[in-house]
Amino acid sequence: MLDGWRLYSAMARMTLMARTSYRANFWLSLFFNLIMVTGELAVTLLIVHRVHGILGWTTYQVMLLYGLTAASGGVFRVFLSELHDFDRYLVNGEFDAILTRPAHTWITVVSRSVDLDQMGWVIEGVAIMAVAGSILGLFRHHALIAGAELAMGVLAGSLVWMALVTAVAALGFFTTRVDEMQPMVLYGPQTAATFPLSAYPTTLRTLFYTVLPVAFGSYVPALVVLHKGPGPGALMLCLGAGLLALALALWFWQYGVRHYTSTGT
Amino acid sequence: MFRTHRRRPSIWYNSGSVTLPRGGRTTGVFFFVARASFRKNLAYVGAHMANNAGSFLFGLIYIALWHAAARGRTLGPFHAHELVNYIALSQAVLWVSVFLPSGLDMAQQIRTGSVAMEMARPVPYVPRMLAAGVGEAFYNLVFRSGPLVVAFTLLGVFPWAAFAMGKGLMVAVALVMAVLTGVLFQYLIGLSAFWTVETRWARRLFLGLSVFMSGQLLPIPLMPHGLEQVLTWSPFQTLVSLPVSTWLGAERPSAWVAGALWVLLLYLGAYGLTRRAQRRLEVQGG
Prior knowledge:
Chain A is mainly alpha-helical. Chain A is 72% helix and 0% strand. The mean pLDDT of chain A is 87.
C-alpha cells in the first residue's frame, strides 16, 4: 500500500512537472471549462427558477448541489484521467506493457497522468459552493463546521466517482470500448446528481443509491449541510459508501485484469 | 468485400466496404462520400447501443425532473406533458445535430499532413467533408435516434400524437437545417486545428454553448424574455429548438429566418476560412 502510494506520488510529480511547462494550456482549459460549467449551471438554475423550486429545493440550494457534484467530479478528471481515456490502452494494446511493470496495474495506469487541464472543474465547483453557501447563510454562524461538512461531501463524492470511473474502465477488459459506456455510468449519473434525487421515480433513486451510488457523493451531503433531514453522522455513511464502492471497483478491476486478452495491435 | 471501380484510385475515402461511383458527376461523389461515412459506422453498432442507453438515461432524468417540477402546470406555450415530450424529442434530435464526430475527424488529417492530399483532390474539399458529416448524421438518425425514439415510445413519452402529416415536410426541413448547422459547426471546429493544432477546446466551447443556447434541456420560450429574444436569433437554436418546436407546433417564424440565415453564413464562413487555411498549409518532408 505504502509502496503503491510512493510510486504514485513520484510518477504523478513527474507528469505534473511536464504539464506545468504548458501554462497557456492550463489557463485556456480553465477558460473553456468555465464556459461549459457556466452553460450547464445556467440551464440547471433557469429550470429551477422557472418552476419556482423543485420539491422544496430553492435555486441556491440546487446551486450548492451542483457545486458539490462539479468539485467531486473534477477530482477524478484530474487524478484518474488515464482511466477516463482507457480505450487506447485496450485498443492499441498499451495495457500489455502495463502488465510487465512491477507494480499494481491500477496504480501504474493512474499515475501516468495528472490532468491539470481539468482542474477547472474543481476550482469552479468550490467557487460555486462558496457563492451558494454564502447566499444561503451557511457560513454565517458555524463557518468551520459547514466548510468541513462540504469538504467531507467532496471527499465522499470523489471516492464514488473514482469507483465509477474505475468500474467502467474495468468493463473495458470485457468489451474493449470504454467511451461508449461512460454516458451511462458517468455522465448520466453526474447530471442526475446535480438535482435533488427526490425528484426521480423510485427505480432511478434506487439505482443512484446502489449500483451507481452518486447519492452519497452529493445529495446526502447536501441534505446534511442544508439541515434537510439526516444529521452529520450521515457524512460518515457517505465516506463509508464511497470507500466500499472504490474497494468493489478495484476488486472488479483485478477480476478484469485476470480476464484481459490483448488485442495484439 | 472491398469493391472499387478500377479506373479510380482506391484511397479516396478510407471507409471499409464501399463501391466508388461510376462516372464523373460531382453530386454522385458527394452521395458516395456520405454513404461511405454511414457504412464505416456500421462496424460499431453494438458499442453505440451502449451509448444509447446513456442517452436514454439522460432523457429519463430530465423527463422525471420536468414531470416532478411542472406537474399539472402550463409553462409558456407548453403544458407539463408537452415538456416531457419536448425532452424525449430533443434527446433524439441531439444525435443528428450536436453529437456528431468532433471536427469531422479533420484534426487528424491536419496533424498528419494528409489534409494536403485531401485538399488536392479534384472534388471540392468543403462540400466533400460536409457530405461525410451528413453521412454521419444519417447513421446517427438510424442507429442512435431510432432506438431512442423506440424506447421513448414504449415509455409513452414520445409525442406521436402531436405529429400531423401536414407538418411532416416542415419537420423534415427543420431536421435538415439542424443537420446542416451541426455539420457546419463541426467543420469549423475541425478547421480550427489549422491554427490551434488541437480541437478539444473548440469542441468544449461548442458543447458548452449548445447546452445552454440550443434549448436541449430548457425550451427557449421558457427563458427570461430578453435572453429568449437573443437565443431565437442564435445559430444554436436551429440545432434542437427549431425541429423540436416544429414537431410540437410551437415554432416561431423568426426561428426559421434565423436558421436559414445561419446555415448560409456558416457555409460562407466555412468556405472563406478554408481558403485562408489553404494559404497557411505547409507540408514538410515526403
